[in-house]
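Action item from last week, closing it out:
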Amino acid sequence: MPIIADEYASQGPSFIADPRRCVVCGGTSLLKAFDSTEPAFAMLRCRDCGLGRTSPAPAPHEIARYYAESYYGKENVRFNPLFEAMTRWFQSRRAAVLHNRVARGPVLDVGCGRGFLLSYLRSLGYEPKGLEFSDTAAWHARNKLKLDVATQDFLSAPLEKESFNAVIFWHSLEHLPRPIEAMERAYELLRPGGMLAIAVPNSESLQARIFGRHWFHLDIPRHYFHFGTGSLDALLSRGRFRTVQRDHFSLEQNPYGWLQSLYNLMGFKNNFLYSLLKNSSARTIEIRGHLLQTALVLALLPPLLVLSLLMTLLEAGLRRGGTIEVYAIKE
């Protein structure tokens, strides 16, 4: 049974006006859900809207150490060639979805990463702009793809009001320490009728509830907040956005969420398969020192992959997918 987490809430970061209150709904019942596998951190959950929060939350000047250069890989190449190709394909499909919903013109990707999505949107006739956390994160988008990417805080970046047809938070909103202000800023930047596109891990998903602290998509402490359907709806409503589409199926994210979480729960080194799939410059685990574990992980891969795909279909049918993708309109 989770306990009332006053001692954790009181450790909230200074940029939260009242760390004992939920930033989305204002609720005062913050429960300790579990201690993170990352030492010294816990996950709190609002009993009213379900929003999760990492506690204590690293201050902005401290979070950078969790985004070391190895986090991105040399020249921003994170995965092996096969998974790099898959990443590009998924981004091209995402661009096609946006193309069907957003009129050509300026679009802003907050946390644009390597810039693949913006590059595909540019090829479709859009005017792309990106924001990133650091020059390291923006390197590929700037130097390889020649995109306009600024390394500035989203809330203070000098951007013109009502100047974008779309603002995109694709697995970046959970990395921001002030989600209410982020929604207000997005509303300010969007033209009337503009599209807000959000994807976040779903803390109310089957994956999250089954695996708890071992769930792959937690990514504590880089994720300040952990959204579910209820808390994300509350955030969008408070931000004056109208949701027009919500998806619980993601072939890119959800099967792997099951797969890696199963390995984690079985006692393998945390996120070991994820490290195996990475480019050598981005690995956090020395594979040569874990040859037996590598062999066992690969031997279990076929049956666990099938199980993960089946569970992905089940969770989507139950509307409890491992990630939520939402498209909302500024009215």
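Closing note: The first helix runs from residue 6 to 9.
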